[in-house]
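thoughts on these tokens:
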Amino acid sequence: MDQKQLQECHERIKPFIHNTPVLTSRLIDQMVGASVFFKCENFQRMGAFKMRGAANAIMQLPKALQQKGVVTHSSGNFAQALSLAAQSLGVKAFIVMPKNAPQVKKNAVKGYGGIVIECESTLEAREKEAKKIEEEQGATFIHPSNDDAVILGQGTACMELLEKHSDLDYVFSPVGGGGLIAGTALAVHYFGNSCKVIGGEPLEADDAYRSLKSGVIETNITANTVADGLRTHLGDRNFPIIQRYVDHITRVTEDEIVTAMQILWERLKIVCEPSSAVAFAATLKEKELLEDKKIGIIISGGNVDVNRLPFSSLDS
């Protein structure tokens, strides 16, 4: 994937996405000891960066395949992203979701026009049901993070950040399935100026950290983290990009994630989800490295249950 493909991708999806704002806070700058610029994808359509990759993946399909629809398995942001992107483009979206997924998420997918197919809550059941829909409907399967078109789409968020602030020294991105950080790393490689990418990852789900150390894709036996969007694993399409272009990954504890999320809510006055706060938590942990530097942080999304905020327990 090259610079031209990234630029073409951005032009392609522009009518279907928001060019999200970049926010700053003098207090946070003082806290980090650096100039910090937050690319706020919590203001993206459907509330997360995944709208970018979903739109690009559908638009890259030939018209004949678009007419047969697309399918994915997800209970999170990509389920909503693919549904909304498909609706915007006049394409059917079949979304395989586990029966035990929160009803609010199922309702959100349906609200965006997605056709929800429920299955048992195992990866095997999800994949089996998605395969069945591929065969019966002729729908094209789109992976939430391990897909070239998705990776390119996710990279456009960092492209927009670099268009406004071309002199960043570091960009921090959360690491889950690897689509966002791989796209971010490509954008920094082609459009950054001696800029480095650092990943933020929960200590409780540190498969990407271990993968970079071992050179092979590692998995998590458990992923007991409040950052529910980061409980997924890397794929064979994004891992080589991460290996080549990501400087390193910083692991953060659950307390560090919750504290970072609370600071963002209080100081930036924005709704962001725990997964977004992981990148900022990593920034706080790397303060010595970042002194007097210019830092970009991707706030990946804002889809959070406001009745279950993790930092509310810290105040009691």
